[in-house]
Amino acid sequence: MPKTLNIAVIGAGTMAQAVHLPVLRRRWDRFTVTALVEHSPRRRREASEVWGVAEESRYESVADLITAVRGKKVAVDAALLSTDGLHVSDLMQLMRRGIPVLVEPPLGFSAEEIAEVVDFERMTGRHLVMMAHPQQYDDSVIALSEKIAAKDVRMIDHEVLMPASQPLFGWAHVTTSAYDLPTEVRSQRRKSLQAAVEAGAGGGATQRDRDLYVKGLLTGVAHQVAVIERAYGPVTRLVAVRHWPKGVIPGSIEILGELENGAPVRLVWHYLPFAPEYSERIEVLSARKRVDVELPAPSLGDRRSRISLREKSAGAVVTTASTATAGAAEAMWEAFHAFVGRGTRPIMGAEEARAQLLLMREVLAAIVEADGRSLEPEPEPEPEAAAEPEPEAVPEAKSASPRVDGIESEVEVQPASEPGATADPGEGDEPQHAAVGAPDGDAHAPSAPESAPPQDTDDEPAVEPAPVTEPVPITEPVPVVEQSPSPASEQIAEPAPIADPAPVGEPEPVTEPVPVLEAAAEEPGADRPSAQEPSAGGARRSLPTDEVDVWNLDHGHSHPDDDGR
User: Fold this and answer.
1) Distance from C-alpha of 370 to C-alpha of 479, rounded to nearest angstrom
2) Which spans does this entry mark as compositional bias, Low complexity (predicted)?
3) What is the DSSP string of 317-381?
4) Cβ contact 132:222 at 8 Å
5) Which of 198, 233, 380, 410 is least surrounded by Cβ atoms within 10 Å, i.e. has the fewest?
6) What is the CA 549 to chain-centroid distance, rounded?
7) Contact, 51 vs 33, CB < 8 A?
């Protein structure tokens, strides 16, 4: 790797022109700008003229740059990604080419977006991303842990006062914003950015929540978290979060958290648009010492940070102060040179950026929940289902049969569902549905319907049986003396209706059925006429009323011994 790195600057926005390009020009012995990528024609032309980029080295998109690199029209050893929109798409094109990239935060707006970069680095086994947090490389920040060790920290207080852009970048003479893009291109870029922010903030976030997420957390508080992480490690636990004034975005944000060792951290970030200057101060306390750090704005490259230590020595308070030897941005680019040339692991790469984004998302959720809302989208109300018509009642009950020797039996009536279906009268099987007809004492039992002549068609539903006064359910058929029940293989699909006994008197063939209720209401032991039962061929013949075969009633065919008794 050559001593001087060929750098492609992607995005000629405010941070590139106010922070990075001045350092690259100052450190001409270490870096050379060989290409500039900017989608705005006017900004691309003006920035190239200011920073001395040849016309043949100006590109509209990263895809055009990659094409030129493949054709060996331009030499690129590393790149600065400082665009004003989405980073991951352009970043992946550079990483697939094996180009290390210094990325201006935020890397992405959702954990899923950054995970694509993390997975690619794991697959290649090479770190290609370094996050551009200049204060992480400041000499005063690095010296914090040397003055007070992490195990001795009693409290860390980090406060930032952020003014509007004029006090920060007014001196830099940044070129015109990218307003010369075609309307459809600007609209598409805006929609893509909005979709990425919505995915990161959550479906239940409002526009104010999304603005706070981007302008206050990802580009404000995230910088403070990065500085504390450099000195003492990451913030691992949130204790409390506060945002004020209510309704002002981004306003002021206060975070109380803890380090891995339990040391408390307080971060305060104020956006004060009319403040005269930028201010950043860190205070670290231990049982015996106090350290104060003053950090200048990264855009003020000629100013240096200052650190002071106050402690007791021989009964007197002693103050020791020192000033950094280089600006934070310049120190960061020196670290990036080592990252590209020697493969030195960066302080914050893609994996650390993803963990930081998850913490910022947790802070946003706490602020929203304090307002009585949630970042999760509200579930859509389920459409009211149309009222379904009540299905026709299928008779799955037991009908009362005539008494046999003082015992009243029940016969389970099978539903007429499919022609050709057979019943399975297994012994000891309990019925799965309650029988139609209420037992004694049930005031809600349905009244018995009037009996109708039996129908020959299979489409007509079975007639509901009459209620029984005192039913005695049995679990198996009651055998009749000197009768053998028909085998189960002779079952038929439809049980035939039971004919009621004719009036007392001379037994005669009954042509019209009599309601079952009359037979069920007779006293035990009374003389009963013979019952009519249809035979297999449709003709009716008499059965002795004092010997009724319950099995035959269930299956609707005669017993072979009826005529020979």
Assistant:
1) 78
2) 444-454, 477-497, 513-523
3) EEEEEEE-SS-HHHHHHHHHHHHHHH-PPPSS-HHHHHHHHHHHHHHHHHHHHHTT--SSPPPPP
4) no
5) 380
6) 66
7) yes
Tens of pLDDT, residue by residue over 172-200, are: 778 766 678 888 988 998 999 999 999 99
CA atoms of 267 and 272, how far apart (whole Å): 16
CB 277 within 8 A of CB 167: yes
Spatial contact of 558 and 419, defined as CB atoms under 8 Å apart = no
What HEC string does 3-36 produce?
CCEEEEEECCCHHHHHHHHHHHHHCCCCEEEEEE
Report the pLDDT value the prediction gives residue 378, as an integer from 0 to 100.
Answer: 77
Report pLDDT for 421: 43
Q: Looking up tokens 């995915």, which residue turns up?
A: 199
What pLDDT is recorded for position 511?
Answer: 52
Q: pTM of the full predicted structure?
A: 0.68
Other CB atoms closer than 10 Å to residue 528's CB: what's the count? 17
Q: How far apart are CA 136 and CA 224, in angstroms?
A: 10
Give me the residue label for tokens 């930081």.
356
Tell me if 77 sits within 8 A of 8, measured CB to CB: no
What's the pLDDT score for residue 172?
77
Torsion over CA of 492, 495, 497 and 502, rounded to 10 degrees? 70
- Taking the C-alpha atoms of residue 531 and residue 528, their distance in angstroms, rounded to an integer, is 9
- pLDDT attached to residue 325: 92
Instruction: Enumerate residue ranges in the chain where pLDDT < 70.
Output: 1-2, 176-178, 381-565
Phi, psi of 133 (to 5 degrees): -110, 95
Amino acid at residue number 35: A
Rounded-to-integer distance, Cα 283 and Cα 266, Å: 10
Residues 465-484 have pLDDT tens digits of 555 455 555 555 545 444 44
**By the 8 A CB rule, do 21 and 28 touch?**
no
Q: Cα separation of 170 and 486, whole Å?
A: 107
